[in-house]
Amino acid sequence: MKQIREAWPGVKIILRGDSGFCREELMKWCEDQGIDYVLGLAKNDRLKAEIVGEQEEAAAEYRQTGKAARRFKEFSYQTRDSWSRARRVVAKAEYLEKGANPRFVVTSLGREVWEARRLYEELYCARGEMENRIKEQLMLFADRTSTAFMRSNQIRLYFSSIAYLLMEALRRLGLKETELAQAQVTTIRLKVLKIGALIRVTVRKVWIALAGGYPYAELWARIWGQLQQVPVRG
After folding, report:
1. pTM of the model
2. Is 108 strand, coil or helix?
3. In this structure, are residues 18 and 37 in contact, taking their beta carbons and an 8 Å threshold?
C-alpha cells in the first residue's frame, strides 16, 4: 500500500477478498489507513437470523417461478468477541434448486456510494471472475516455472500470457454468439484447437479436412467464418 501511494498519492484503494481475509487486524488496519474493503463473511446462526424474512421471500418466489431468486438486506453487525466495532454487513438471501444459499459480506463502503445489491453483485462477485481468469492462466501452463533460472521461468510466463491474449481474442471474435462464447480455455482447446485434421497447401488455398467423426465441424466452420470477417490492420 505504501508503494502504491508513493506512486499515486490520490488513488482510491479498495481491498477485496473472501472470508479468509475477514479478520479484525486487517479490517482495523484498513480503517486506520483510510483504505476501503469488501470481504466475505462466514455465515453463522446470528447472521442467518437477520435474513429469515428475506430468505422466506426468496424461497416463495423460487417455488412460484422455478428460477433462482434472491433478496438483499444490509444491517450493522459486530461479533461477540473478535471485532472492536460494529460494521456494515450486506446479506444475500438466495434460494436455488439445491435450497437456501445465503451469503454475507462486510464492508467499509457506505450505502450512499454502493447500495446493497450493487455492492454484492458488481463489486464483490467480480472477485470470483478475477479468480477465473487466473485459473485460465494455469490452464495455459503458467505454473510451469520449474527451470533453475528466473529468466527462463519468466519467458514461460510471457508465453502463457501471450497464449491467453490469443485465446481471449478468439473468444471475443470467433466464438461470439456461439455455444462456446463463455467457455473456458481448456474447453476451447479440446473442442476447437486440439483436433485432428489433414492440411493440404496449394498455390492459392490451404485446405483443412476435418475428420468425419469430429462432432463440432459445423461450429468450427462458423468460428472460422467469423474470424474471416475480422478486418486486418496493417
Report:
1. 0.69
2. coil
3. no
